[in-house]
Amino acid sequence: LDSYEPRNFWEVMPFLIAFFVLYSTMVFLFCLVNRVKSTLLDLLALIVNVAIFFITARHLVLAEYGPTWVAAITLALAAFYIGHVYFCLLRRVHDRELLLSFIGLAAFFVTLTLPLLLTEQWITVSWSLQAVVMLWLAGKLNSAFLRQAAYLLYLIVLVRFCFLDLPGQNGVAIDSDQPFSDFMLGLLE
What we know:
Layout: H1 9-33, H2 40-64, H3 70-90, H4 96-117, H5 120-141, H6 144-170, H7 180-188
């Protein structure tokens, strides 16, 4: 990407998307066609593939269109993995690890999309609603992993609410010399 110029966006991006989809689908279809459960190596290949794609595509989109359009990538990736989840459920694929990986990747990219599209005030609300949906899905799928991910998201929401939203709303900010207990008491006043 050293010699990449933004005017080449429409030449480079379709190739990048095709390579990503091809490699991602290759790993997924191999497990389905051969009727074998995915291994840790397969799941790591999916994660590394999407990480390389997202980092590269983000760089390309930022150079050409700006930060707001990065949400188009994250939303497309979320839809891509939701489609995989739907396909697995429709075909009754019994590879739990693969299904949970797709759910986790879809949830991750939805979580990344929200701050890119929403204003500061709506991020906490949207993440808490996402955690509710993840808890509901965890109950339906009987998935401890998804339940723990929802609890982690709730923890992030709580931290964001206490340290970003409340101080910003009430004009109270933590001072480096102020004890944490005094800061928390100041939030309750």
